Amino acid sequence: MEAMLFYLVALVSVISAFFVTKCRNPINSALCLVTTFLCLAVFYVMLQAPFMAAIQIMVYAGAIMVLIIFVIMLLNIGSVGKSRYTHGVAGAIVLSFLSFIVAAKFIAGGTVSKAVGDISAEVVQSYGHTELIGKAMFTEFLLPFEIASILLLVAIVGAVILSKRKV
Amino acid sequence: MENLAQIAMESVNFQAIMPSLVLCCFGMVLLLVSVFLERGRTAPICWLSIIGLVVTGIISINGWNDPQAGFAGGVVLDNFATFFNLTCLIAAGLTILMSDSYLHREGYPVAEYYPLILFTTAGAMWMASGTDLMTIFLGLEVLSVSLYVLAGFFRGQLRSNEAGLKYFFLGAFSTGFMLYGVALLYGVTGTTKVAGIAEAIRLMPDASSNPMIIAGAILLSIGFLFKIGAAPFHMWTPDVYQGAPTPITAFMSAGPKAAAFAAFMRVTYISLDSLQVDMSAMFWVLAVLTMTIGNFVAIAQKDVKRMLAFSSISHAGYALVGMVAWNEVGFSGILFYMLVYTFMNIGAFAVLVLIGKQGEDNLTLDGMAGLGYKRPFLGVAMAIFLFSLMGLPPTAGFTGKFFIFAGALKAGYVWLAILGVLNSAVSLYYYLRVMVYMYFRDPVEDFSWVKMEMATIVSILIAIAGVLYLGVLPGPVMELAKLSIF
Amino acid sequence: MLENYLPVLVLIGIAVAFAVGSVVMSGLIGMKKPSAVKLAPYECGMPLVGSARERFSVKFYIIAMLFILFDIEAVFLYPWAVMFKRLGMFGFVEMGVFIAILLVGFIYVWKKGALEWE
Lengths: 167, 486, 118
What we know:
- The structure holds three protein chains of three kinds.
- Chain A is an all-alpha fold.
- Chain A folds into two domains: 78 residues, NADH-ubiquinone/plastoquinone oxidoreductase chain 6, subunit NuoJ (Four Helix Bundle (Hemerythrin (Met), subunit A), Up-down Bundle), CATH 1.20.120.1200; 49 residues, no CATH class.
- Chain A has seven helices and no strands.
- In chain A, helix 1 runs antiparallel to helix 2 and helix 2 runs antiparallel to helix 3.
- In chain B, strands 1-2 form a two-stranded antiparallel sheet.
- Chain C has three helices and no strands.
- The N and C termini of chain C lie far apart (52 Å).
- The interface between A and C is large, with 49 and 46 residues.
């Protein structure tokens, strides 16, 4: 059942990812990207990471997509005409095929091992995913958490400086 | 129910983050002050940020020989971190000194410039003192995001826009690589602590053939190599260095580069110690490639800023030689070299800041013609910095390279040292060419627009003092660098 | 494990059914008296003049960017809220520092006039 669902969602995500690059109209591409993001959220749910799934939808499928759409409207690209981009397609196909083979070889040759470290699937089950993230963030990774606020502050300043009409 | 608050509170140690904490506080206060000042009044912010840097410097020096760890092993303020902190503070200080008149000349007197430099420096400090990949990564992000903004700071200039955009895109990519490396290493070791990863890898029987560790190590290295500007991840350097505001170029090539080296060294020497043979071999190739590409492409450059960008690539290559050596001499050599490079490179850019016209289209080789006669002080200053960049005695460039190559020789990398010296010989050509233009060409222009701004002159004088002091009497600082090894 | 998400699936199903159902039903049993106003893409608001492919002002973009930044701030609040009782006063201070730093950013944005529609 779960495997079936995985393959179904994986298929959808790969197809929509393909159409992100394939669509002529940038808005269509953006909508395909939303589909891909939603599929990723489903994967997170399957991996017992509901918090990641929620963030994936809130931040990526929500906020980031708004920004992408805004950029498209800002640039006013419209749909690209009939011209086809054939430049380097053959090279890209060969390269991706080769990397696929390498990745497949590694994955097939590897052994499935249990998660290393203190946090296993059982711990996540019993303690709760969001709780574990909260625990790590506010005890062990307290400093990176506070640095993140400085990072956001810098980003705010940067956004204002670079895009406000009069600074 | 476990007492989380108790555990977390015990791990808090403000001593371990004091310099960056002070710097951030200064940054935030200056940000708030700046919005309440009228537009164009940047001088108070400029001087307050200098005060902030000095205060932070004093705090850092007070922490010498008093290692402080804290935040559950996420950060440690040891001598190594302090040495790099001071290097970054010097870089930031020299940059800010030359900035104010420059910003007014170019027509962008925006006060946020200074807080952003302070935040960049704080990010550099987290990188230098981070002992957890998360701390290092977030430090790197704070540093990078501030630099993206600073590189594109001149919004009306196409070149600056290009610099900001290119730096941002490529930087975001390299960050992605690095994060993937962190994820792989976490997946295989179950920890993000630098020491914990070392422990886990040591316990593994076949670590050097484990694909996850290899991929993790390589991807992590790519992130750092990008920031350092080492070949083949150097593509962004020329355009970004040329397009960014000149003081920012100076800063970028010194402070953040030193911080990237600091984090890179800590991660490779501690976490990936078991992979020494493979990592050393990789660094060997990268060092030779970086030196050679930097030096040979610099020959073809007509724009002085762009030439210095390629020269900065080659200097990253020299410093990588110290990474190959993987011993104490090469190691302290990198620390020393980063300090030396800060002085000589920022000094050279400070001279460019003074002689540039608005828009800086005159910073070409032809534009330098006759500078030595028309502006003797600037000519002599530039000559000293160029001699130092070449690596000629009695300047600091010589002693810096000497220690690095000595480390390589001690580790038995004779060919690497020979290639390094040969590369220095190649670099003579393009540095000397600038000198030839300055002293042996008839002046095309009279340099009448050059205003000898006091603060910039101070910055140049400090840089000259640093270059000559470290060149003539390298002993004391080298001793400090030796004491800084973890 | 996945069974826990059955209500979500049911909710999605109801939402889709409602949306599709309303459109289909109104098409089947509704009266059709088309007029120019009714057939316009939006029945209310400003009259539609010109192409939809108009270049948007960068003003929208800065608002969107600031929205994302504060959105990400909000994301950090969830794990904190879940652990709030166990972290107690210490967690409150931690989050206080985090918010205070972003408050500096907020004051900056406000005083800078970036939220004004200039």
